[in-house]
């Protein structure tokens, strides 16, 4: 079975750090978007017609908020996978280092 | 952390000969004292223990060779946590002998290995040559007419190395010379042969496929096998000379195929044998090195300690009876008992009949400065000392720096998210410190960050606090308590209608309308400002005023600290003539500015905001003493301002002339007073000749050290000198007050820059990822966040962090410390084995 190691110890550690940060920050962003926080209004992709042609305001904007929130959660999930892969790499690197010395 | 540096005393150590080595070894382990050189005029070759040091140098040389060999063989050297003690002199010879034996063995083995390898290369070349000339012969035999006949010619052995085969029976004397030559020389060789031998030689050559190692140097290069056939003896000599000239390696040429096959076989067997022997030699070498590596570390430490002890012994002087060694050391007064204990221990170990003892002597030299630190405070102490080591017994700014430095950094950095990341990084370093200390990494930048881990931790924690105050987390505000502003009431009283909203792109919330502003946010800045367009105008005003207030408080604190210095150095007059004018000048002008700022904040509310006066205009008017046409802030303002201005103006000449005139009066007038006062005064004067300050009546008796005087008492009191010095100080202080207060505005500038950078990063990077609406585009958010994280760390944390660190440091060094700190002292460097650098560690061998 060919070696599953494809990045060095430093790269794997970076991957771990960014994954943990990503999971926490994207999860919190997802929560804040779902809570329809006003501070994040600029990040929601609404257009002028969304505001004007809304039969039942502000449900269109709210649904956009929810969409972005779900996007954030999905991204957080992907980062969980990336984190798991990095963890494996870190373990493999440690094992290789242990075997050489 | 201590208020001022420790009290030191000069101590004489009387070390009995016989136990002096052990006493100094004991002192080196404890690291208590700093030795003074008692033989400064003696060169290092003439010192008493020069031969011992030479021996140590020799041992270090052998150890260096040993460590290099061990490193070449890639064997790891196990280190120990506590190094071994310095060996007694009798053990030194044993170690020396061991090392010399090892060195000899290693040299021999290396030499043998060299020889064997050279042999191997020669045999390899010979093999190649034989194989290739075989093809020459066989190919030639197909083309030449002489070919088949050549094989029948009987051989005549000449027994020479060149092995030319003569065909004397036929009288044709056809000779062969074969060998190898370097590829680069082949064309010149051929041309030379042709010119010299005028066509009586035939040269055929082919390049060897694999690159061979050169015999002597071991370099890999291409070689060419050649075969020269020639007629005649004289030609043979010429060809041999040419071959010598071109450094060819000649090998005997076999006469026929059978002989060639035999030689090839024997060569093969010999090469195999040689390889075996080489392997065995390498194994043996490795074994020797491994055994040596086990004790290498302890040898290095022992030799280092030994050399240090002899170096210190060279600094001591022998007393008249030649029986004991005298050393002069600086020792902290609180460590005297430890010193005595160490000497007793050393005497016991050295089996001395008479124990060594200490004797405290008075001294007029300025002792070095010692400030004890632990792992937390050492970082802050080092950044204070980078500006200058404090004078002896001067007030140290380090304990306050532990809080003010991270705080000023945080004011410039203030972001909750960035602060959290920084604190977590520092926390990781702190938790890993035991492991990192053992690693001894060579990367200097990492070592710098690691040694400042507690500073970074404090900076991060304070940044979290200021991030909560500025309400800034990765450039977004957090709404924890609910905003104090509400938009709905603006519609209640018809101030705004749907038409207003549709026809205006920007609207102003009016806090005077009831219900719009329900009170200030409990902690920090209201989150609604994050969405306001005029956010910066509000924040700028707030941050600028805050910077000035912090600056004035910091500087006043610095001025107040100078009182302790004046009192300690027995210059009580300085408190009235220097400190008081300084403080009055600072507070009357800039303290009043702070008062006006706070007054305006408290007194004017949203209702009167249109009539709120500009503080700057009032401040300027105070100086030009005009402004009777603008409404005063409070009744009696003009009168108070004139009073403050007068006080400040009066304190300038007081600062300039007070101290020089007082000292002048003291020296001239006081001396006259002394003569009149009688015998007792005269006696005291004659004892302390020339020292001005000791005639003060409030002289505290502190024993021998009480007479440490900051300014060396001049025999001749130079009025002009003191006046000039004081004039420079006055100008520096007064102009400095203004410029330093303005300098604190960098707190505003950097925090603005940080906030804006953070906002730009979010808007340009993160927003792109969040605004994606397509189904597949969700995955785009993942690399966008990775990019955002990387840029945050590299730009906002590292670059901005270093920048804010530097500016906070500058504020401490220049604006704070020039109010009271001199920083012209000498650091106390105790004789401690753990502080001595190892030559091998620097070379990366250990």
TrEMBL record, chain A:
<dbReference type="Pfam" id="PF23489">
    <property type="entry name" value="V-ATPase_su_f"/>
</dbReference>
<dbReference type="InterPro" id="IPR026770">
    <property type="entry name" value="RNase_K"/>
</dbReference>
<dbReference type="InterPro" id="IPR056552">
    <property type="entry name" value="Ribonucl_Kappa"/>
</dbReference>
<dbReference type="GO" id="GO:0016020">
    <property type="term" value="C:membrane"/>
</dbReference>
<comment type="similarity">
    <text>Belongs to the RNase K family.</text>
</comment>
<keyword id="KW-0472">Membrane</keyword>
<keyword id="KW-0812">Transmembrane</keyword>
<dbReference type="GO" id="GO:0004521">
    <property type="term" value="F:RNA endonuclease activity"/>
</dbReference>
<feature type="transmembrane region" description="Helical">
    <location>
        <begin position="68"/>
        <end position="90"/>
    </location>
</feature>
<protein>
    <submittedName>
        <fullName>Ribonuclease K</fullName>
    </submittedName>
</protein>
<feature type="transmembrane region" description="Helical">
    <location>
        <begin position="12"/>
        <end position="35"/>
    </location>
</feature>
<keyword id="KW-1133">Transmembrane helix</keyword>
UniProtKB/TrEMBL annotation, chain B:
<dbReference type="GO" id="GO:0000220">
    <property type="term" value="C:vacuolar proton-transporting V-type ATPase, V0 domain"/>
</dbReference>
<feature type="transmembrane region" description="Helical">
    <location>
        <begin position="546"/>
        <end position="564"/>
    </location>
</feature>
<comment type="function">
    <text>Essential component of the vacuolar proton pump (V-ATPase), a multimeric enzyme that catalyzes the translocation of protons across the membranes. Required for assembly and activity of the V-ATPase.</text>
</comment>
<dbReference type="InterPro" id="IPR026028">
    <property type="entry name" value="V-type_ATPase_116kDa_su_euka"/>
</dbReference>
<keyword id="KW-1133">Transmembrane helix</keyword>
<feature type="transmembrane region" description="Helical">
    <location>
        <begin position="776"/>
        <end position="799"/>
    </location>
</feature>
<dbReference type="Pfam" id="PF01496">
    <property type="entry name" value="V_ATPase_I"/>
</dbReference>
<dbReference type="GO" id="GO:0005886">
    <property type="term" value="C:plasma membrane"/>
</dbReference>
<feature type="transmembrane region" description="Helical">
    <location>
        <begin position="576"/>
        <end position="599"/>
    </location>
</feature>
<keyword id="KW-0375">Hydrogen ion transport</keyword>
<feature type="transmembrane region" description="Helical">
    <location>
        <begin position="407"/>
        <end position="431"/>
    </location>
</feature>
<keyword id="KW-0472">Membrane</keyword>
<dbReference type="GO" id="GO:0046961">
    <property type="term" value="F:proton-transporting ATPase activity, rotational mechanism"/>
</dbReference>
<keyword id="KW-0813">Transport</keyword>
<comment type="similarity">
    <text>Belongs to the V-ATPase 116 kDa subunit family.</text>
</comment>
<feature type="transmembrane region" description="Helical">
    <location>
        <begin position="642"/>
        <end position="667"/>
    </location>
</feature>
<dbReference type="InterPro" id="IPR002490">
    <property type="entry name" value="V-ATPase_116kDa_su"/>
</dbReference>
<keyword id="KW-0812">Transmembrane</keyword>
<protein>
    <recommendedName>
        <fullName>V-type proton ATPase subunit a</fullName>
    </recommendedName>
</protein>
<dbReference type="GO" id="GO:0007035">
    <property type="term" value="P:vacuolar acidification"/>
</dbReference>
<feature type="transmembrane region" description="Helical">
    <location>
        <begin position="452"/>
        <end position="470"/>
    </location>
</feature>
<dbReference type="GO" id="GO:0051117">
    <property type="term" value="F:ATPase binding"/>
</dbReference>
């Amino acid at each position: 079975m060919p070696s599953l190691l494809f990045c060095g110890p430093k790269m794997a550690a970076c991957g771990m750090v960014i994954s943990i940060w990503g999971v926490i920050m994207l999860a919190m962003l997802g929560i804040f978007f779902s809570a329809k926080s006003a501070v994040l209004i600029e990040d929601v992709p609404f257009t002028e017609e969304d505001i004007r042609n809304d039969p039942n305001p502000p449900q269109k904007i709210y649904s956009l908020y929810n969409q972005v929130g779900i996007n954030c959660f999905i991204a957080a999930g992907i980062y969980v996978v990336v984190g798991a892969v990095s963890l494996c790499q870190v373990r493999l690197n440690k094992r290789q280092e242990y075997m050489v010395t | 952390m201590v208020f001022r540096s420790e009290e030191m005393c000069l101590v004489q150590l009387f070390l009995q000969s016989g136990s002096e080595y052990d006493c100094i070894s004991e002192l080196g382990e404890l690291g208590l004292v700093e030795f003074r050189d008692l033989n400064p005029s003696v060169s290092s070759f003439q010192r008493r223990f020069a031969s011992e040091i030479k021996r140590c140098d020799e041992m270090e040389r052998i150890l260096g060779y040993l460590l290099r060999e061990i490193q070449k063989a890639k064997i790891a050297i196990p280190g120990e946590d506590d190094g071994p003690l310095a060996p007694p002199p009798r053990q030194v010879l044993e170690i020396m002998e061991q090392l010399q034996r090892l060195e000899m063995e290693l040299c021999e083995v290396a030499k043998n290995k060299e020889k064997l390898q050279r042999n191997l290369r020669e045999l390899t070349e010979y093999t190649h040559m034989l194989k290739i000339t075989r093809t020459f012969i066989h190919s030639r035999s197909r083309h030449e007419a002489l070919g088949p006949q050549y094989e029948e010619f009987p051989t005549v052995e000449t027994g020479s190395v060149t092995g030319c085969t003569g065909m004397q029976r036929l009288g044709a004397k056809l000779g062969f010379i074969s060998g190898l030559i370097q590829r680069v020389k082949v064309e010149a060789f051929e041309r030379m042969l042709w010119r010299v031998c005028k066509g009586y030689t035939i040269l055929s050559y082919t390049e060897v496929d694999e690159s061979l190692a050169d015999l002597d140097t071991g370099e890999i290069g291409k070689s060419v096998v050649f075969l020269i056939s020639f007629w005649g003896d004289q030609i043979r000599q010429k060809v041999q000379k040419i071959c010598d000239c071109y450094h060819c390696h000649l090998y005997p040429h076999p006469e026929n195929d059978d002989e060639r096959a035999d030689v090839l076989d024997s060569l093969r067997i010999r090469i195999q044998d040689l390889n075996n022997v080489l392997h065995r030699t390498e194994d043996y070498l490795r074994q020797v090195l491994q055994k040596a590596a086990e004790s290498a570390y302890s040898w290095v430490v022992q030799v280092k300690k030994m050399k240090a002890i002899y170096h210190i012994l060279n600094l001591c002087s022998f007393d008249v009876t030649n029986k004991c060694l005298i050393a002069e050391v600086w020792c902290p007064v609180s460590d005297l008992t430890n010193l005595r204990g160490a000497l007793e221990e050393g005497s016991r170990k050295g089996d001395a009949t008479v124990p060594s003892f200490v004797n405290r002597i008075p001294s007029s030299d300025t002792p070095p400065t010692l400030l004890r630190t632990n792992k937390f405070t050492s970082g802050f102490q080092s950044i204070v000392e980078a500006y200058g080591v404090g004078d002896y017994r001067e007030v140290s700014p380090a304990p306050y720096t532990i809080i003010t430095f991270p705080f000023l950094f945080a004011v410039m950095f203030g972001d909750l998210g960035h602060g959290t990341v920084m604190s977590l990084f520092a926390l990781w370093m702190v938790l890993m410190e035991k492991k990192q200390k053992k690693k001894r990494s060579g990367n200097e930048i990492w070592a710098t960050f690691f040694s400042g881990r507690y500073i970074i931790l404090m900076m991060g924690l304070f940044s979290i606090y200021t991030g909560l105050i500025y309400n800034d987390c990765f450039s977004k505000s957090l709404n924890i308590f609910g905003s104090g502003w509400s938009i709905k009431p603006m519609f209640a009283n018809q101030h705004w209608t749907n038409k207003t909203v549709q026809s205006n792109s920007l609207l102003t919330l009016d806090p005077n309308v009831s219900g719009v502003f329900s009170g200030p946010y409990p902690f920090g800045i209201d989150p609604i400002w994050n969405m306001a367009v005029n956010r910066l105008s509000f924040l700028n005003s707030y941050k600028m005023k805050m910077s000035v207030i912090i600056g004035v408080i910091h500087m006043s604190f610095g001025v107040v600290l100078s009182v302790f210095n004046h009192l300690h150095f027995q210059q009580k007059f300085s408190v009235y003539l220097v400190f008081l004018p300084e403080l009055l000048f600072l507070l009357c002008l800039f303290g009043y500015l702070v008062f006006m700022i706070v007054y305006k904040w408290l007194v004017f509310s949203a209702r009167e905001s249109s009539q709120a006066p500009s503080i700057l205009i009032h401040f300027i008017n105070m100086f030009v003493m005009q402004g009777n046409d603008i409404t005063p802030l409070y009744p009696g303002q003009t009168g108070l301002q004139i009073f403050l201005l007068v006080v400040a103006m009066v304190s300038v000449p007081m600062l300039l002339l007070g101290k020089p005139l007082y000292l002048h009066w003291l020296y001239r007038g006081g001396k006259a007073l002394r003569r009149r006062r009688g015998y007792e005064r005269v006696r005291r004067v004659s004892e302390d000749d020339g020292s001005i300050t000791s005639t003060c009546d409030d002289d505290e008796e502190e024993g021998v050290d009480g007479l440490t005087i900051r300014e060396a008492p001049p025999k001749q009191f130079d009025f002009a000198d003191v006046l000039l010095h004081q004039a420079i100080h006055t100008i520096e202080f007064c102009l400095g007050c203004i410029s330093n207060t303005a300098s604190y505005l960098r707190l505003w500038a950097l925090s603005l820059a940080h906030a804006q950078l953070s906002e730009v990063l979010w808007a340009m990077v993160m927003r792109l990822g969040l605004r994606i609406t397509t189904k597949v585009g969700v995955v785009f958010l993942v690399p966008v966040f990775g990019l955002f994280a990387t840029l945050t760390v590299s730009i906002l944390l590292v670059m901005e962090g270093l920048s804010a660190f530097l500016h906070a440091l500058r504020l401490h060094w220049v604006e704070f410390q020039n109010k009271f700190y001199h920083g012209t002292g000498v650091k106390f460097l105790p004789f401690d084995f753990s502080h001595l650098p190892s030559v091998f560690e620097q070379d990366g061998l250990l």
